[in-house]
Amino acid sequence: MKKYFIAGLVILLPLALTIPVVVFIVNLLTKPFVGLVVSLLQGLDVLNRGIFFLTPEQVVVFGSKFLILVCLFIFTLLLGVIARWFFFRALINLSDRILHKIPLINKVYKTTQEIIRTIFVTDSFKKVVMVPFPKEGTYAIGFVSRDSPEVCAEQAGAPLISVIVPTTPNPTTGFLLMYKKEELIYLDLKPEAAVKYIVSCGVITPEHASQVNNKPET
Asked: 138 and 65: one domain?
């Protein structure tokens, strides 16, 4: 019975963790617009009928969220198409210059812009390393960010490399550490595999994942 219970947990836990994440993302994307769309659908007397165990109000709310997601998808797709046009690029450059001149907003905008460009344009966080942490003789998995600030390197008397060491099982938090190049042990490991190892608290190793993926079907 124990093995059947564990097998059930293996099936249910990923689903139980996935559902809250999906619900959070959906609510985050639809919350600013759901009130307006609900009022519109109620005014047009659309979807004002119960379905199965859902009340008419719940049908309107869920229908509104679905409609918002569809509209956001279409809008994002069209935005990507228009972004290739020269006029839109010029408009983006103009708005970029305007946002850089607005007090307070320019600070947030510049910081966000630099972070996004660093993550998606450069090789940041794409190299997996093993670093001594929290003390010599013990190691942690980290991701190379980029070279540390020059002022830090000057004080240390040697070039330093910034490394993000995520916490487990929540890799969205962690430590920003600076190491000398010779202290880093570069690993032939994909970032996705390293993240799985961290999130699973060391249960899912790259070798274990390969064995599961390559296991023949019976």
From this structure: no
